[in-house]
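User
Please review the sequence:
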Amino acid sequence: MLDTKLLEIDDPEAQSDAVDQAAQLLCRGGLVAIPTETVYGLGANALDPQAVKQIYEAKGRPQDNPLIIHIADVEDAKKYAKDIPPEYYELCRRFSPGPLTVILKKQDCIPKETSGGLDTVAIRIPSHPVARAIIRRAQVPIAAPSANLSGKPSPTTAQHCIDDLWGRVDAIVDSGPCSVGVESTVLSLAEEKPILLRPGAITPEQLSEVLGELVIHQAVTGELKQGVKAVSPGMKYKHYSPKAQVTILDGTSEEYIRYVNSHNAPGVYALCFEEDASELRVPYILWGRGEDDGVQAHRLFAALRELDEKEAVQVYARCPSKKGVGLAVYNRLIRAAGFDEREISDEKASR
């Protein structure tokens, strides 16, 4: 068991000693949970195979699941990727630093442990000032999947990291809650056409404004087909899951309320929009209004963890929109549900 340090950093300039500590631990091959604008990431030196292996061990993560490397500046991409198309720089001008990851052909310096055995590397420039300060101080790219135990809801506060990883990592950097709340958009530019592999706060509509044609991978809204290798985090395995069984209900507010109320039993909870709550006869967790996908994204993982705290057994979740940021919310929720989604109608809900 490791002696985990808790480093509180609000302002990286004012708390440079703590930034130095985090950077030094990373350079020595340690594991440090760091804040980003999306979720907290479990960081290690992306160029150190042994350090990267520790990420998989600490999380209990399958080793064929590739990692994203985090860099501080656009120019650094050339050190770790090759054959970089001009579209990458256009996307960076528009969306970076920010919640966008781009997959490119990798340089030989990226070990197979980081790339999941692929010939590509996933690169992101986070906008969080603490994350960027630590990367700059460490002077190495940081491989950082979400800082949670594999399969559990991603962490959006340092406390979530503490709950999952205390004693498993060298340090946890506390810089308050994450602003976005779901992981970055993942886009591949390593194929013939740009492919959206994981939706996030940068939406397909925004990407299309820069790229024109955009292919959306079938695993964005469904299960990865058997035998197909995952080329991005979040594609292959059941993710983000509370202990309860989550079932997504796709219908109107009235149909949702009727269905949930008719399935009232001990341990049943609703994950609902604000407009549903007043008529529900079961305990519920709110995650924003139906039209506010940004709030839903911000609240989703915390809400799933809250359901664990309440010892929910069965959760009926209102289906979000599949447009804009709502597509990212749906992508995470369908995996949390193990792809258990039901279309409901007045007839079915009344049974």
In short: Confidence is low (pLDDT under 50) at residues 347-351. The chain has twelve helices and 17 strands.
